[in-house]
Every structure is written in C-alpha cells, then in structure tokens.
Protein: Protein kinase domain-containing protein
Amino acid sequence: MSTTEYYNPPPPNNGGARAAAIIISMFILIIIGVVSCYCAKKMRKAIVSDLRAAVAPPLPLSVIQVWEVDAPTMERFFRELAEEKPVRFTAQQLCTFTENYKTILGCGGFGKVYKGQFPNGVKIAVKVLNRGPNCNIEEQFMAEVGTIGRTHHINLVRLYGFCYDQFLSALVYEFMDNGSLDKHLFSDTRELEWEKLHEIAVGTAKGIAYLHEECQQRIIHYDIKPGNVLLDVNFSPKVADFGLARLCNRDDTHVSVTGYRGTPGYAAPEFMLKNFPITFKCDVYSFGILLFEIVGRRKNTRPVGDDESLDWFPKKVWEEFEKGELLELTEACGIEEKDRAKAERMAMVALWCVQDSPTTRPPMSAVVKMLEGGVEIVPPPKPFHYLFSVGTNVLKPPTSGSGSGYTTSEGTDSYWYKETTTPIMAKYEITVASI
Ligand SMILES: Nc1ncnc2c1ncn2[C@@H]1O[C@H](COP(=O)(O)OP(=O)(O)OP(=O)(O)O)[C@@H](O)[C@H]1O
Ligand SMILES: [Mg+2]
Structure:
C-alpha cells in the first residue's frame, strides 16, 4: 500500500458526515462551556462566602478562616463591600471583634465606644448606642445609617457597618489612632505644633463644608466640638458622629431644654429661643467656638448661667480685635511669631462664625477660603449681643436688603472676604528682595 493512498482526502460527497462532526464538536464545546461556567460560578460563590465570613465571622472558630484567604483579596473585597453600603453585623460578631467589649475608648452622649478589630487586622471603634424609648425603629435606623455610610470624604470618619437587633444598636467606625482633638488641644504638653493645628482647623472645616454643601442631602452635624474631631495616625482630622443627631436621641448630659441639641458651650444661641429655625449655620457657630479653643488652647465652655464671666475667651478676642490688638493677644496665648499672622486670621474667622445672626455667619466653604489665606477677611461685626439681651431680634441680620451679600461663589468677593489681587507671598518676596 502506497503512502499516497493512505493520505487520500475523504470523498467530496461525504458532506453529511462532516456536518455531523461539526455538530458533535459544537455540542461538546457547549457542554464544556456550560460546565466551566457552572464551576466558575460555584467557585466564585465559595470565595465570596469565605470572604464574607472573613469580614464578619459568626464564631471565633471562623476567625481561623481569615488567615486562609489571601490578605490582598480580602482587603479588596472588604473595601468594595464597604464602599457600597455599610455592612450589617450581628451582635455576636461585634462581641468577637471587641473581644467581649474589653477596651473602652470613651463615653459620650449616645453611648460607649469600644476598641475592636476585624479578623483581617483592620482596627475599628464600635459605638454602642443608648437605646431610649425614642430610638428609631429598624427601617428609619437603616435609612439613616445608609446615608451616613454613603458619605465619604477624607475629612469624615468612615462608617464601616452597623448592628441592629432586638437588644443592640451599634455603629462600627474606622479607628482613629490619635483619638479626639480635645485630648491633644487641652493637654499641658502642647505636643501639637501650631502649624498642625491650623491644618486640623482647615481639614475640619472642609469636612463640615462637605456635609453642608456637597452631599446630595445636606447633613447638619449639631455637635461640632474638639471631641468630635478625630485624628488619624498622621494627625489628619476627620469629623466624627455626623448624622447621629437624626439616628438616636442623646442622653441627658447633652440635653438641657426640650429641643436642645449639641453640647453646652458649643451650641448656637438660636437653640435657646423657642420656635427660631435651626439651620446648618448652627454648625458654623460651634466651629467658631472650636477655632477660639485652638487659638487660646483652652476650653471655652462656661458653666451654665455664667454669662457674665469676664474671662470668657471668645469675648476677650472680640475686645482685643476692637482695640486692634489681636496680634498681641496671640502672643499672650504663647503662639510663636511665625504663626501669629495665621492665628490672627483664625481669630477673625472665629468672630465671623459666632455672629448672633445665623445668616451673617459665613458658609463653611467661605470659612475654608478665609482660613487657607489668599483672601482678605472683611472685619467682622460685634458678636455676642445675645449674652446681653433676649429675644429673636438679636439673631436677625444687622442690615436687611443686602441679602445677596450673604451668598458666596468661587472667584468673587463675598460679604465675608475680598479676593486679594496680590498673591499672599508678595509680602515675603518684598522682604527677601530688600535684604
Ligand atoms: N473612631 C474612633 N476612633 C478612635 N477613638 C474614638 C472613635 N470614636 C470615638 N472615639 C473615642 O471615644 C471617645 C468618646 O466618643 P463619643 O463620640 O462617644 O463621645 P464625645 O465625642 O465625647 O461626645 P458626643 O457624644 O457628643 O459625640 C472620644 O473622645 C474618642 O476618644
Ligand atoms: Mg463623639
């Protein structure tokens, strides 16, 4: 038999057999495709459920699984999961994360805060909310938590998740290594440089500006104070507890009269008047008080009923400003010469923020601009009339008719500041040139 015979092609009329072969191969291919799709789906499901367990292990035993999942995959999954919406945890999981609520970080108006850790090593702070009779029902709770959880900004503390069951409402936040600003601001060691404090003020203002002006639905904080400004490992500030006012009522230590929200000393004067509309400008007032505390490095909170106190630092700042001696005051506060111009600026911004009339207070985006420099701050009018007279008139804007003056837009002068034509560095450039 010759080789040519052996390799002869099939006769051209064998079309039926060829078609059958094609159909069979296609069928085999389809089966292979379906089987591999099914296997991939199953594997993906298994990985996802493994990862879910890794994020929220129901029992201590499951913790072991975490280390079986490779860390980067888990980390990515966790991030993606948390970016979508806050994760719901069970009470048992929170108990595991906090090692049975072993370490308490602090206690505030909403409840206690505990240190914890996800099984992947990410540190967390678990805020167990007081359950009062007025606490929100589950749907409301979920709706509010959903809003807080979707609010992301570099200067806002992240909400990773929550727990809501018959007995427990809790929020799971990112852990902030350096705790709250008050601990550093009012410590005798003064370990935070003034420059850093200025950065903290700007970052905090940006966080609040985001809540007020950039969120789909404006969020009023109601409780701006150094205790609610948390510092990360680099001492960068993040505003904490936003959205909580709508979530749950506070305990009695933070409530003095019906309808009063926030912390005494930081709360805007409009809270003391019945039926006066409360707007986002109440946060601007509280931020002003915080700025005074940064300048003076001391707590401004006055005992209730101590309105006449001569020693109230914000009032002193106004008096010195009126005399044109704000720089001297910053010197008396122990601020180094190189930082005094910035401190003077900060004090002026603070005086604007604490204006009696909410309308006269600048919006937070204007506050950011004024704090950052590069604009000339208009001299603020006298604040604190409310300390001496009672009634809604005190909280009305000083001059009506100039309503448009209260608005601000990028690149234009506003009621609170003027754009400078010369760059801010010009002063230094002239000094250098004249040496
Ligand atoms: N995410 C967090 N990371 C690290 N520490 C935290 C975190 N959240 C809160 N803390 C600590 O727990 C303390 C108590 O916080 P909490 O918010 O309960 O009280 P507060 O801020 O003093 O009062 P308020 O109820 O008015 O907010 C804070 O001072 C802070 O030191
Ligand atoms: Mg707080």
In short: The two ends are 107 Å apart (CA to CA). The chain has two domains: 83-174, 181-427.
